[in-house]
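Q: Hi! First time doing this. I have a protein sequence and I read that you can turn it into a structure. Is that right? Here it is:
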Amino acid sequence: MNHEFLLEIGTEEIPAGYIEPALHFMKSAMGRKLQELSLSHDAILTAATPRRLTLCVQGLSACQPDRQEEVLGPPKKAAFDSDNQPTKAAIGFAKSRGAALEDIRIASTPKGEYLMLVQQHKGEQTPIILSRLLPEFIISIPFPKSMRWGAFRASFARPIQWLLALFGGQVVDFAINDLAAGNTTRGHRFMAPQETPVTDFADYLAVLRRQYVLVDMNERRAMVDSEVTKAAAEAGGNIVADSDLLDTITNLVEFPVGVKGSFDDKFLALPPEVLITSMRVHQKYFTVADKSGRLMANFVAVNNTRIDDRQLAAAGHERVLRARLEDALFFFKEDKQRRLEDILQDLSGVVFQAQLGTMLEKTQRLEKLTAFLCSRIAPDLLANSVRAARLAKADLVTSMVGEFPTLQGVMGKYYALHQGETAEVAEAIQDHYLPVRAGSELPGNIPGALISIADRLDTIAGCFGIGKVPTGTTDPYGLRRHALALLHIIADRSFSLSLSACIDEALALYNDRLTEERQQTAKAMLDFIRGRYMNDLISKGIAQEAVEAVLSTSFDDIVDCRKRIDALLSISSRETFTLLAGAFKRVINIIKEHADDQVSPDLLQEEAEKKLYAAYLEVRDQVEPLVREKDYAQALEKILAMKEPVDAFFDTVMVMSEDNRLRKNRLSLLAAIARLFLRIGDFSKMYTLSAQSEV
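A: Yes, that's right. Below is the predicted 3D structure, encoded as structure tokens:
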């Protein structure tokens, strides 16, 4: 028989960012635990508000199934003596399992005869299991920070105030600290704080809805969206879409009520990003825009209670916001009094990294590294790129960025435009911080892209150069994120760059600040970036065999690497390539450490090896120009012509001849063919993929 299990953990207000990860853990951990306990069930549902985390397991079995266990004991020869009497080993085995000697039998196994005990275990009742399981389950829920309360040792995100636990409508008997589980929940803290009994999940949802708590997160999110949309319409505008803020507000309230507010038009002189940040980050307010998308002097707040006097509620929000905007307007006016060029020296007081110096020193390296990159990618943009690199970090010492750190780069753009810098320079100052996270927007112009690459290369080089290398899950300087960002920018812009040369330049600009040996550091950096590139491609669904086939031979220009990977993938499903990949795997295995690829034509005796050498020369002359032009697809088409001569060679020629000269010459021929193939990739690593595609 199956029943519903309902658990509610009632707490003081849990931070909004803790809630969804906690629910994910509760659902997955409970599912795993029930499976381990052989308790069948249907769907596992979750719900939450700032004051409660809720789990519902539908169709949970009333008890474990009965099971039979076969336990092997000691070998028969150790269990009985020469008189066929049980030894201490046999007696101890029976005693350890709570059985009599008469219950033991002999079982034949592949290793011989052993004692065996067959025991019947009656399934335990689910309420008993839950009462034992739940205290540990609840305390194991992970949070970024937990706290203890009172004199108790158990910790949680916030103090637990009540526990509701029902199985089949009956209370599950357990306690945490001195708090026993019951059958009651609590409504809204202010509008319905009383305890109310519930019978099941459907009743639980209905009871809380009547008590001004929308515990279903999707329902509450929809109501937040409806409330703010309605409030914005009252102002004659639309909410500026912000799904992250919508999610945050959903986890801050139990009964959302939208409140329209306004502010003085003079604050519209601030950049839109400043207004949005002031309202969104600090006050959790939604911004309002007109039909053309321009911000209006309005906002929408979300209260957690019913409001009798909306004007009074709005006035409170307006008073708080006005103080914040007055500060922002003051900072904006003050910052514009000084040119970015004039405040650069203030960066000497901002530490980049204790061993690597200040942000002023980083800026100086950034200028030089950007110039290095620009000279190779877009020499005609050198002046604007270097100028933007020089000013890129200046806004870090402005009052506005000091107050709103997330506006770094954004304020630099506005101040640059105000001071007469070109639009390209201003945009590059803002864009060099992009992307801010994986999959987010990339720099919009080439100078911004080059500065972003230079900035990240400088950070990676500096950290690797002083031994601050990511290990396991530890990456305090975000170097993995920086590596992915520069790879994505290079790929997006199709910049043909030698990563090795860029790394060498980045390391050289640190002069004597680095403590690690430079050549080893450069190799470690390149290997690190290669690893990020490989993982990134594989995570996007690119066949691992193709990625490894290319990156195992060379990794320097990622645009070139991707062209070779794509060329291999485009041809990998063809039967000819499958067979050639298999043959090449054999070539690699045979030549091993043989490095000489100089063939002596006069030592070619067998007809098959002569034909193979002739085919090699013909294909080499066709392939090398194509490789230089990076036309790898056509190069592979030419290489496919090698299949039949290679097959014939292996069918009729003894490579490992007893004649040392013939053996070395044949190995050199295979080494020459291998060297040609490796110009594109190690085909031997593609054999598995090719064979799979054939199946």
